[in-house]
Amino acid sequence: MTLSAATADGLAAAGIPAGAAERIVRAALEEDLAYGPDRTTAATVDPAAVGIGDVTSRAVGVIAGVPLVSTVLEVGGLPTDGITVLRRDGSAVGPGDVILTLRAPLAGLLGVERTLLNLLTHLSGVATHTRQWVEALAGTGCRVRDTRKTTPGLRALEKYAVRCGGGVNHRMGLGDAALVKDNHVVAVGGVAAAVAAVRSAAPDLPLEVECDTLAQVDEAIGAGAELLLLDNMDPDQLRAAVAVARAHGGVRLEASGGLRLETAREVAATGVDYVAVGGLTHSSPVLDLGLDLRGGS
User: Fold this and answer.
1) Based on the domain organization, do 190 and 261 belong to the same domain?
2) Domain residues for 258?
3) pLDDT in tens, 18-48
4) Among 74, 89, 208, 231, which one carries the catalytic annotation?
5) What is the CATH number of the domain that holds 290?
6) Residue 159 a catalytic site member
7) What whole-number percentage of the chain has pLDDT above 70?
8) Most exposed among 11, 86, 264, 297, judged by the fewest C-beta atoms under 10 Å?
9) Which of 103, 181, 199, 239 is catalytic?
């Protein structure tokens, strides 16, 4: 199945790959139907009934995933012309706020309800958590970035949710940027050797170097690295690394490892440009949303 032009265009406008969205939604719906059709709905709902329902927030948070709603309905065999969006992605919401209204055949709507809510609650949870970091860093000049610690298969959507929350994406995969880490350093025999090898193989690729010590910071900058990942350094070490980097204009720094929301401003105050927070995608609690039917006809 290929998504309609309208649905694909909506995903593209949000920066969500249509192919990835369709694959994820299809897998989720197939998972729900792996043991047979929806027995409960078949027994209780008139096949001719049309339902109207509201997706409503039950908590304070930030919305993400609305462009996926039409994908869920379309892959589920339902019309998409009954979607009325009231809150766009990135919007702050509170208990009782209606995100969108759906009008569709009731049996089909109940069949896709859980997939729809699973995606919206998870992605909105990621956006909500990200917004908390953005607010904690406000005014410092430091920005929060995600990592590749994503749910297998959901990376494109989770990184989209980070953007909805105001965060910045790190690399999307292994091929759009290079990140020299400790195992690469061990494999090639040193930080400078690793930087030289990557520059030789892919001279135009964005390159970041992970540094565990100030000595590695010196070595990486000396090798020409312009973005450093400072792994598990305390504030004093971060400040020292910033001082070294600022003496070489254009070198940017990213703090990573063991970061907590309550100490975000302390880390930002050291002068780093970014904080890398894997928890945005691997540990965000869902935002409580529900689909409340007004009735069927």
Assistant:
1) yes
2) 135-282
3) 999 999 999 999 999 999 999 999 999 999 9
4) 231
5) 3.90.1170.20
6) no
7) 99
8) 297
9) 181
| 281 contacts 146 by C-beta, under 8 angstroms | yes
From 74, 158, 210, 219, the catalytic residue: 210
Catalytic residue list contains 266: no
How many domains is the chain built from? 2
